[in-house]
Amino acid sequence: MKVKIISNKKIARDALRLTVEAPFLSSKAGQFVMVKVSDSLVPLLRRPMSIAGHEGRELSIIYKTVGEGTKILATKKAGDEIDIDGPYGNWFDPPEGKKIIMVGGGAGIPPLLYFAKQNKNHGLNITAIVGGASKDDIFGLEELNNACRKTIITTNDGSDGIKGFTIDALKDIENVNNCHIISCGPLGMLEAIEAFCESNGVSAEVSTEEKMGCGFGVCLGCMVETVEGKKRVCVSGPVFKTGVIQWS
Questions:
Q1: Is the pTM here over 0.90, yes or no?
Q2: Would the CA dihedral through 187, 193, 196, 202 be positive or negative?
């Protein structure tokens, strides 16, 4: 459907938050939309983007300008219209009664922002760990601080928070056995989190970031290897429970 842009603002290095009017859509944290960034045939395919927030009539996504399509999207202004499909995919569904640890890296932070805001008034005990190459890559801290009990920052260069990676901060948290981890980010980070969970008997859900052509299972462009064979991320995911994906 065609939706009107409310705002399209830079929030971090190479990262923008796009907010649109979407009164007829309903969504849950972890789902994504397919965005057509141009009315022309260049680029031809839509871009999959995680939903970073959805309240009332307003739906927001956060994206990084890393290629031709997202650079075109960054030129859009309030009042312009874009075409989006969705929401698609499944969502985070943590078990009841456990503390939540959210772990997000880079472009994997947006769905965790949505989860935190969606559950702000549901009494969940949420700790957020967010990481980036430097402090200029971190965003959403105000939202996380408002919705979570604790927010931990990691940066590769030590310019903010803990110097190191998100997995380093996760290993420092005490009593993780009574926690459930939800995570989204680079595959290397997700693989490290799965290994940590397996070693410590912790339940978790990981959301993968894969390139997609259609978003609903036709193009087969987002296949991942699982314990049950190849699966389409757009249909079977993007959220998977630990022990499902075959990382190597």
A1: yes
A2: negative
